[in-house]
Write a structure and sequence with these properties.
- This protein is mainly α.
- It starts with a helix and ends with a helix.
- Among the domains are: 23-87, Helicase, Ruva Protein, domain 3; 90-125.
- The chain has helices at 2-13, 28-32, 50-64, 69-80, 95-132, 139-152.
- The radius of gyration is 36 Å and the shape is rod-shaped.
- It has six helices and no strands.
Length: 153
């Protein structure tokens, strides 16, 4: 009983990590997928050029200094320019990369929502007009049809 109360006491008084706490330590593999080799224009994770090795070395140095991922990415942009980032920054003209595709999908869905009911109404109207607008039956053909229906039905 005393052990249970002590463990509850320890759990309730233990420091709780907050969102404003220190950022987690960056890792090379985590950063490699978000950064490009500026020489061969491939992801740093797959690039095998001397420039890629230089960038990896620079990233390892920044990790050893204790910088987090966003600080390292800012340092890479300062060192190599914005072309080093795999994804463009979300401001200025580059914002269109993030806004335009969802806007086009939404416009396409809206277009389909408007046009599909119109197409269906036109098809129903055309089918109704085709079935009721046939040539009138000859009285002899109408009599023969009635006889056949009576015989088989």
């Amino acid at each position: 009983m005393i052990v249970a109360m002590a463990s509850v006491s320890i759990l309730t008084t233990a420091p709780v990590a907050t969102a404003a706490g220190p950022a987690p330590k960056a890792s090379l593999t985590d950063i490699e997928y978000d950064v490009m080799c500026v020489a061969c224009h491939e992801s740093l994770a797959v690039a095998e050029s001397p420039q890629a090795d230089s960038e990896r070395s620079y990233i390892r140095t920044l990790i050893a200094q204790g910088q987090d991922k966003s600080q390292i990415e800012h340092a890479l942009v300062a060192q190599y320019g914005p072309a080093v980032l795999a994804l463009p920054p979300g401001h200025g003209f580059n914002l269109t990369v993030y806004v335009l595709p969802p806007a086009l999908v939404a416009a396409g869905i809206a277009l389909l929502v408007v046009t599909i009911p119109r197409w269906r109404r036109r098809a129903r109207a055309a089918a109704g007009a085709a079935s009721s607008s046939g040539p009138p039956l000859d009285p002899a053909d109408a009599r023969r049809l009635d006889e056949d229906l009576a015989r088989y039905g």
